[in-house]
Design a protein that fits this description.
Elements (H helix, E strand, L loop, with lengths): L1 H32 L7 E7 H5 L2 H13 L2 E7 L1 H10 L4 E4 L2 H9 L3 E17 L12 H11 L3 E3 L5 H12 L4 H4 L4 E3 L4 H11 L2 E5 H6 L6 E5 L6 E9 L9 H11 L2 H8 L2 E2 L2 E2 L2 E2 L3
Parallel strand pairs: 1-2, 1-3, 5-6, 5-7
Antiparallel strand pairs: 3-9, 4-7, 4-8, 4-9, 4-12, 10-11
Amino acid sequence: MKRHHLALAAAIALAAPLIAPIARAQDASVARSGASPDARSIVVASTTSTQDSGLFGHILPLFKAKTGIDVKVISQGTGQAIDTGRRGDADVVFVHAKPQEEKFVTDGFGVKRFDVMYNDFVLVGPKTNPAGIKGGRDIVLALKTIQVKATPFVSRGDKSGTHAAELALWKVAALDPAGSKPSWYRQIGQGMGAALNTGASMGAYVLADRGTWLSFKNKDALQIAIEGDRQLFNQYGIILVSPEKHKHIKKELGQSFIDWIISKEGQAAIAGYKINGDQLFFPNAS
């Protein structure tokens, strides 16, 4: 009996180097194809703000109860989420950088883009108000003041929708700290929560989406400095990844999610998500 166990162990040890690469290859194949053991599930590549704000935790159970379809979320910056859709590693893209979304569709990687909801960006900063900008509504003037006073500023630097909005605002202000890299400007290459935590620890200003800011727990050292400027408008859109580009895309299930999101029921679910009485997103599907 002992010899039998030894022989079996030896056989397993010899086979392991052959089995492991096969298993890894199968896992990689599943990840690339977007395949799932659950035929009633889809993969949605979405911006971190929809996940970090708690919106998905609120609406996805309602969608599953209605349709039986499970939604698996890949939470990334918008640029990364669009790249995930471009590779065919998601069935649906749900992000907030309209020019990038429109290019995704124009390039043939998405079927059609739909408006879903909006909120706005806010410029958050230390309660000590080192740049002297708290209470203003002019985001461009605020950024120019931060530059003149060399007040610390944290940028996500991750090609997200928020990062794209930040860069666009610096451009309107005729400034390019991302290119010139002054000592007061720090790019961290991480998500919104990490940027806010870094801003809190550094005493720095941060551009944030309001949804993540409202759900952010570490507010003690931070406050909203600038809000209400029309240039801080933040639109979200949703797109089915093209089944013409990627044959494995779950077209019907993905479209069912989009149809629900832009329906009266889905829009009401979005409007109903609040934190401490504050509505985080405002539906505007047409």
